[in-house]
Amino acid sequence: MKFNTILTIILLAACTSLSMAQDRYLTRSGSVKFFSTAPLEDIEAHTNKALSIIDIKKGEVAVDILIKSFEFEKKLMQEHFNENYMESDKYSKATFKGNYGSNENIANMVDGTYDVVAKGDLTIHGVKKAIETPVTITVSGGKLSANMVFMANVKEFGIKIPKVVVRNIAEEVEVTASFEYEPYK
Amino acid sequence: MLGRGWRKRKLIELNIMKRKTFVLIAAVLAIAVGLYVWQNFLKTAPAMRKLEAEYRVNSNEFYAEFEENEDAANEKYVNRIVEIIGELESIEMNEGSKPVINLKTEGFGMIKFTMESNLSSGELNELELNSTLLIRGECIGYLLDVLIERSIILDPS
Fold first, then answer.
1. Is the same domain home to B78 and B145?
2. A24-183 has CATH 2.40.128.110 classification
3. Separation of alpha carbons B79 and B137, rounded Å
4. Is A48 a residue whose pLDDT tops 70?
5. Which helix (H) or strand (E) is A2 found in, with range?
6. B65 and B28 inside one domain
C-alpha cells in the first residue's frame, strides 16, 4: 500500500512536470530594439539578451530586459541613455507581464501564424502602464516564436528629455521585439 | 604738463588692466564652460582596462550567489566591476552587436559577457571551448543568466 502510494506520487509528479514542460516556453536571447526619429537625428539601440516566458495553455507572457544591455552605435549615446534618461542604476529593468487570452491552436502547438492581442502592464523607468499590442505568434514544427511592434511615449514613463536635446529625441519611440522560444524544461 | 602726462599714462595702464582682466575672466569662463560640456556631454567612461575590480570570484560561486539570493547578490555586485574565472561555454557573434562570451556555471544559467569591443580574429582563434578564462567587466544584473557588460579578457596567470 505504502509502495503504491509512493509510486502514484512519483507518477503524478512526473506527469505534472511533463505537462509543465509542454506548457511553458522560454528564451533568454530575445531581441528587442527601439527606434527614435527626430528632426536632428535618428537613434537606434538593441539587445539580444531579453528574457521571456510564455505559457501557451494560460496564454500568459512575461518579458524582462536589463536596460544596460541595450547597445548603441555610439558609446557616448549609450552612456547618456543610461545615466541621464533611463537612470538605469536606479531602474535597472523594463518588464512586461500580460496575457493574450486563450487560443486553442497555440495551446495545442498547431502549425500556423496567429495574430493575437497582448494586454498587460509595461514597466519602464519605474512607471507601470497598461498597454495593448498586437502580437504575431508562429508555431512551426514544435517551435514557437512571437513578434511585435508598438509605440512607447517616453513622457508617459516619466523620462525627462532636456530642452537642449528635444530636437534629437522623439517623444514616441518605436519598439520592435522578436522572441524564439524553446521548451522550458 | 607732467601731471597731465602722468594721468594719461595711468589711464592707458588702467585700460590695459581692464582689458587683461576681461580677457582673464573670459578665458576662465571659457574653460569652465568647456569643462562643464566635457564632463556632462562628451566624457565617456574610462576603458575597462584602466579600472580595478572590486571582486574576483569563480563562475560557479558567482552564479550560485544570484540563484540563492538575487537581492543580496544585486546589492553586492550590480553596477560594480568584477573579475570572473570560469570555463568557456560558447561565443555568440551577432551582426551589429558586440561579441558575447558565455562562461559555464553549475546552475541553471550562464555568465554572459558582452565585450567592450569587437574581438580580433587572433583573439577569437585563441579562445578554445572548455578552456579557463579570466574576464573583467561591469555586472548589470540577473535574468536567469548573469549579464556582464564592457568586458575584457585578462591573462589568467
1. yes
2. yes
3. 10
4. yes
5. helix A2-23
6. no
